[in-house]
Design brief:
Elements (H helix, E strand, L loop, with lengths): L7 H12 L6 E4 L9 H16 L3 E6 L9 H14 L7 E3 L4 H13 L3 E4 L3 H7 L17 H13 L8 E4 L14 E5 L13 E3 L1 H11 L4 E5 L6 H11 L5 E5 L2 E3 L6 H9 L14 H7 L3 H11 L6 E3 L1 H15 L1 E3 L1 E2 L2 E6 L8 E6 L9 E6 L2 E5 L19 E4 L4 E9 L5 E9 L14 E3 L2 E2 L4 E8 L23 E9 L11 E4 L3 E5 L11 E7 L4 H6 L3
Parallel strand pairs: 1-2, 2-3, 8-9, 10-11, 12-25, 14-20, 18-21, 23-27
Antiparallel strand pairs: 4-5, 5-6, 6-7, 13-24, 14-17, 15-16, 17-22, 18-19, 19-20, 23-24, 25-26, 26-27
Helix pairs in contact: 2-11, 7-8, 11-12
Bound molecules: adenosine-5'-triphosphate and magnesium ion.
Length: 555
Amino acid sequence: MTDKPSHFIRDEVVEDLRTGRFTGVVTRFPPEPNGYLHIGHAKAICLDFGLAQEFGGRCHLRFDDTNPTKESQEYVDAIMRDVRWLGFDWGEHLYHASDYFERLYRWAEQLIRAGKAYVDDLTADEIRAYRGTLTEAGQASPHRSRSVEDNLDLFRRMRAGEFEDGTKTLRAKIDMAAPNLNLRDPVMYRIRKTTHQRTGDAWRIYPMYDWAHGQSDSIEGVTHSLCTLEYEDHRPLYDWYLDALGIDHPRQIEFARLNLSHTIMSKRKLLTLVEDGIVSGWDDPRMPTLAGLRRRGYTPESIRDFSERIGIAKSDNLVDVALLEHCLREDLNRRALRRMAVLRPLRLVIENYPEGQIEEVAAINNPEDPSAGTRRVPFGRELWIEQDDFRETPPPKYFRLSPGVEVRLRYAYIVKCTGVERDASGQIMTVRCTYDPASRGGDAKGRKVKGTIHWVSARHAVDAEVRLYETLFSVPKPDEADDVRTVLSPSSLEVLTGCKLEPALASAEPEARVQFERVGYFCADWRDHAPGRRLVFNRTVGLRDTWAKIERSGR
Ligand code: ATP
Ligand code: MG
């Protein structure tokens, strides 16, 4: 069936099919449209859609749109776009909890008639106070024993909008002494006189997540309702509602959520970053959102690979962000075209190279992929090199350019530094060198040339803005800070202008992913980059992989 390593949920599914508890596999991914999807959601999406695919079943996209105060169409659209981008397709199966509001309402009346639900007048604070604690039983609300007729009448009037927000709720009548607090007469409906992005003002009461979720699963014929561990304590309630209604009963299975180092994933906190202008928006390349990762240059393949590698477990852990970057580098190494780009330019003049002469050298597009071929890169007397690739007084083991030393210019010639030119303040403006015409293609002819540096022809270079991104937070567990704003990294973004790129990059389309040789992987920004007009590249990730080291040290 598959060569992927198994996990406990897959084992459970196989067992359910074997015993005939279910005859097929139907899953759902149920985002609440109150923010953008993040890398944690990607784990759930890969699991929900992946399992359905594997077992020839289907996966629904269902918006859990039960709380209109925080939800919006912008989020709905972004979620659909991001799930597709990640490589999954719900086909016909797009649903909304709000599609079921009428059905849920009728089921609520059914529970009232069965004596299993009642209208309560306690406020939210009072309900909390009456609920008791883990060591103390709760107390019954004075309204718990209302007659069926009164309950039906009040509930209908709640629906009709006769009462104000927060003045009444509908509660399930379960057990105020239940050890599981979720069973102490949970609220099923609250009054919210808020316009809903899909149902408008048709509803003045909205169902709680627990009341909506299992029933939505049941309506859609979901077999396996997979969710994160915090819902484990809600499972008895999930089961209680379905049993009380006597309807089709899907199975809820919980798994550990993804926690990623140097990252926060709560949508509430991510929204704060956006609202406070700490990032430029939900798709800021430092955000752990799928839109942000995409803009940063992540590939959907690398995120799916990451989701596969972290596996599915039953207990929470913290995954190092280095693993995510490792998956990305592996993928980009295979597919990204190599280009030359100088981020902090320093002029290099080749004294003995004929003035006005231009030649083209052949450069390999991707050493990992011979089919990517080669390109021709213009070379001339004046070049840009990285400031870092020259040192007037080289430190020990510095193999790049310094006075009297030879280096190879990638794909071109060997040059030897003959001196520098300074401006009035003494700052080095130009490095001078001579080249060896016989060394074309980098042939050292038996000499020892230790360093190879990249370059861009000054006459042909195109200017670009390059944004260097690092993790947004300086600590591995930003969630532990009382205020995440206190653990922001001061160096999460550095903007360089006047970077010099080889001319082939002038036509790069937005979202093109390339490797700047010796520098890192970069992606043309999807918002600000316009081929031929304004070039803007985001650093996706540097070249050095830290994952292998972390893994070896046994973390
Ligand atoms: P938040 O608490 O940040 O608002 P959420 O869990 O409420 O997030 P939902 O939109 O309700 O967000 O999540 C949709 C689905 O994605 C749920 O099934 C949820 O369990 C799953 N999910 C959310 N965060 C993670 C995570 N970090 N790892 C794995 N699955 C997740
Ligand atoms: Mg939620």
